[in-house]
Amino acid sequence: MSIEMPKGLPFAVDTWSYKTDGKRYHFLSHAHRDHLKGIESRASYPIYATRVTINIVLNYYPQLDEAIFVEIKVGETLVINDADGDFSVTVCDANHCSGAIMFIFEGIFGNILHTGDCRLTPDCLLDLQLKYVTKRGKETVSRFDFIFLDCTFGGCFLKFPTKESAIQQVINCIWKHPHAPLVYLACDLLGHEEILIQVSRTFGSKIYVDQSTSPDFFNTLALIAPHVISNDPSSRFQVIRFKGLYERARETLINAQNNHQPTPLFIRPSTQWYAIESNARAHIPSLTESEQDDFGLWHVCFSMHSSREELELALQLLQPKWVISTTPSSLAMELSYVKNHCFGESEIKTMAGEGVWQIVSSLCPRFPDNWYYEGHFDDEELFPMSIRVLKELCQGRDPSSIPLPLRAVLAGAPTTRLTKEQLIHYVPPTQLSQTLITTAGEQLNQSLPLTIAEPQVDRAVTPHGDKRVSIKQSTVQQDKIPLDDVNSSNNSGKEGRSCSADEAINL
């Protein structure tokens, strides 16, 4: 999965929803289904992707017009001429599955790495621009202001074998069972084609894929490696779907045993079983050779995502100023690098540069509602730890250059949507234009109200029907913000209370 990019940026990565309809450019990192949700109804030109990804997506959704896609290649740098300022995009291999890529965006908003889904091994890092990579203990020539990072297994402390090592474990497991009449490979996901290609090459045999039960994977494999596919259902090597795998394996193994027949071999190359086993039991499964479970399946730790160790090493070498987890939500904040290098006073001073200012201020480009980021970025990743960053960024700047919502936050406003009345409580009405107030009210009429002590407001209707607003007296202390349960779905069970501005940011 992925998260929405900040509203002020002109591009989206792997998201297709009403929130990204206004984005002028779309980038697709790879063709896994969880990154394509909504693309069939919301796709629009241009969508930048690799040729492999484009072909797979068109296979999934034949109703899409190929003309909306723009092919890009690994190692290529594009310069996009945008009305709000030119920016460049460099394409890097993501070491995830066929066609998977990462994006380096460079522009007035700063330097951003979006990894999509990735396996950030040291070899993969070598494909990044060298100016962003350094040896441990030294500074990089350039630093990423933000990394949108795949943290799928960021909470798993196992040391994953490389994909090459895992594939060899699969091959070794097959060698150890020479009498198995059938070898069932639970490899029905984009990315598993690497395993099938090596198995086919090693044993000189094609692999049967049932098109009727696995149409998506059959068509995908036919695009990527058609030479490994067999149409013979009696082939020794067969792809089996993960769905229903354990039931079919148990039934097949029991039947073979009851009929005194040679035992077929079932192999599942995956990381999930290892992550679950290591958390649920004192026994840690072997990561250097295949291991059999209680059902008779053999497991190999094959991962298309980075281990926690690989994530930590990558961040040490890249030294980003800020890290945002694309999946799962907020997991980046548990990484040691982020704890040690993103939240301290010295790091905050380092962050207070023009690149970070551009992206933070881009969150609120025109109207008050635009500063609110709907997703994981503000309330779970950026704003909870950034009130000091914002103060540092705004220090010494002309107040008129600071977006109104940021001024409101620094004056004590909570980090959520503000109605026009709530906004003017924190920012003097003399700094609000009539158009801004009126438009803000129209655009925010669906926003959740905050339970705060409302200022007394005089309203006078002019002959033209517009409203003039003035504040008689503030009833809310500047350093204390009475907050109620702003969003019951996110804050269920929390009592309304008074807190300082810094505390409010963390709610």
From TrEMBL:
Parts forming coiled coils: none
Compartments reported by the entry: Nucleus
Gene Ontology process terms (BP): double-strand break repair via nonhomologous end joining; interstrand cross-link repair
Main localisation: nucleus
Pfam families named in the record: DRMBL
GO MF annotations in UniProt: 5'-3' DNA exonuclease activity; damaged DNA binding
Keywords: DNA damage, DNA repair, Exonuclease, Hydrolase, Nuclease, Nucleus
Keyword Transport recorded: no
CC per GO annotation: nucleus
Location of the region described as Disordered in the Swiss-Prot/TrEMBL record: 461-507
Record-linked InterPro entries: DRMBL, RibonucZ/Hydroxyglut_hydro
Chain ranges of the DNA repair metallo-beta-lactamase domain: 224-329
Similarity comment: Belongs to the DNA repair metallo-beta-lactamase (DRMBL) family.
Protein name: 5' exonuclease Apollo
